[in-house]
Structures are given as C-alpha cells and as structure tokens.
C-alpha cells in the first residue's frame, strides 16, 4: 500500500549491482518511486520555492515511466540539481545555467524534463558538478554538456565547445576516449572518466593539481594519469578541486587541493600526484565519495569515514574543528531497538551535507 511522502522499497538480497561494466555486489537492490526535497539555500537569487520542503514530495510527472535506476544530486551554489535515468531517457530539473540541464535552455526548470540526446541506447551512469553534466551509454559512449569557459572540462576540443554564454546546452559525445567508459565524475572545473579496463583519464582545469599529473598544465584533451598506468581502479570521485580513486585492492588514493583537509593526509597541503590515504591503510575500502571540499569512504565492514571541510557539520561527527585533515569514523545514533548495528553501503556528499545508505542486520 503506497502512502504519500513515504518511499516504497522492494529489497532483493545479494543482487549484483552493475554500473555499466564495473560490477560491485551490494546486499540490496532498491526499487523505489522517486521523491525529492528542495533546498531553499542559494547564492544566486531566489529559488523555485520560498520555503524548503520538510517532507519528501512525489514527482508525479515520472509516474508512468520505468523505475529510476540512478540519480545524482549536488548543491555547489544553487538549489538541488536532480538527475534520473529511466531506461534510455534522462530527466533533469533544477539549475540550468550554462546549459547544464541539457535542454538547450539556460534557465532553471522546476519540473523534470526529458533530455533530447542523440543516443539510441540505454543510459547507465550520470554525473554532475552542478554546472556541467556527463552521461554514459550501455556500450560505453560518453556524452557531456554544460559550462566550459576555456578550461576544456567538456573534452570536446576546438570548435566543439560552448554555444551560448560559456555553456553548451546540447549533449555531445566525447569521441577521443581510447576504450569504452565505465564511470564518469565531474569536478568543479574538470572531468574524470574510468575506462572498462580500470584506467583513469581526465581533462580540464589543473591549477590545483586536480588532474594528478605532477604539474599545473590543463587542457581539453583527455589523457591518462601517468602514475596510475599500472593500477587498476574500480571507482573515482571528484570534489571542487580534488579527487579520489579506489583501487581493486581497496586502497584509497587522493590528490589535488588540500586546503580544507579533504585529501586525508593529516595536513592542509595539496598533492601533485595520487597518493595513498595512509590513515585507511588497514581498511579495505569498498566505496568512496567527494563533496565540494570534503571526502568519504566506506569499508567492507560497513564503517563510514569522513574528512575535510566540517564547517557545516557535513562530516556527521559533533565537535570537530572546521578543517578535519584525517579520516574519522562516523558513529550513528541508535536506540536499543534490537535491529542490530548500522552497516553503511554507500555515501553521497554535497557541498554542505552528506547522506548514506545503510542496512541493519534485523531489518
């Protein structure tokens, strides 16, 4: 029985989760209708609603579509940016400056609207920085659109970039990748792509060593990260000016800007090339995430570690300094309800908040 403002979930134990060709086994596959919360916090004028919603609201415009299988949300400087994949259709709403919604418009959209792209196959992965967006098809083709004001973050090359006010409102294929793409991550002014073979390629701005190549030379052309040539990666994540990568051995690497402690190296120094997060050396990490200036990791035991900017309590640990430069475990509040301990499965981090998905042994 479905009740408004509640998410109806169907749980399937031990189902293999497949993001393109990169497979990870999660305890549950969630089937849910889509609800959302709108934030009223904005640095650029008024938002779509004068007050934030205190309860989730059902998106009725998507009722007749297939179940949502992927979403990405980010709030770098405006309202909630919502993305959903429905079969081979993409529906976006929220901030539309620089063409970030892919609707060939440059304004906000209150309701979800389908993106009219040139692909003719199922979409399986999406990512956004809030001003530029990327999507991957089932066969590993990468499409990208949104802001590009000369830094090359769209990876399209001369003559294939912005069409209006520094933005590209039409999804365009990135054709220079050497092999099919399994995952993509959009940083503040750069983009990273993980190939099906586990190799990292990136492009865009590099003034804070975001590309991890040991220098500050950026550009539009996708290139591999030299120090990771013989390392197989299984996941990537990008913040505003920093990045994380997860190896097939469960090791976390970080690089880029470290001024908020977001690299996890117990200092505020930047890193020119990927370096292991030594504080997690004794843990096998299964999932990573980046916010604007904070980071997170989930271990195979279901523990959640976070570090970086804590100014808005986004790390979930009371009493931290504003800059937390080493990973700290997040402890969950729980009543003695007999449901067992929290086991974190995944985490998502925004500019000033974080959310995680967890299971409990008796649920």
Automatic annotation (TrEMBL):
Is this entry keyworded Transferase? no
Pinpoint the residue ranges of every RCC repeat in the record: 88-139, 140-197, 198-249, 250-301, 302-360
InterPro entries registered for this protein in UniProt? RCC1-like_dom (IPR058923), RCC1/BLIP-II (IPR009091), Reg_chr_condens (IPR000408), Ub_ligase/GEF_domain (IPR051210)
Q: Which UniProt keywords apply?
A: Repeat
Q: Which residues form the RCC1-like domain?
A: 87-356
| Annotated Pfam families | WD40_RLD (PF25390)
- Looking at the record's lineage, which domain of life comes first? Eukaryota
Do you know which PANTHER family this protein is assigned to? OS09G0560450 PROTEIN, REGULATOR OF CHROMOSOME CONDENSATION
Q: In its UniProt entry, what is this protein called?
A: RCC1-like domain-containing protein
Organism, by scientific name, is Salvia splendens
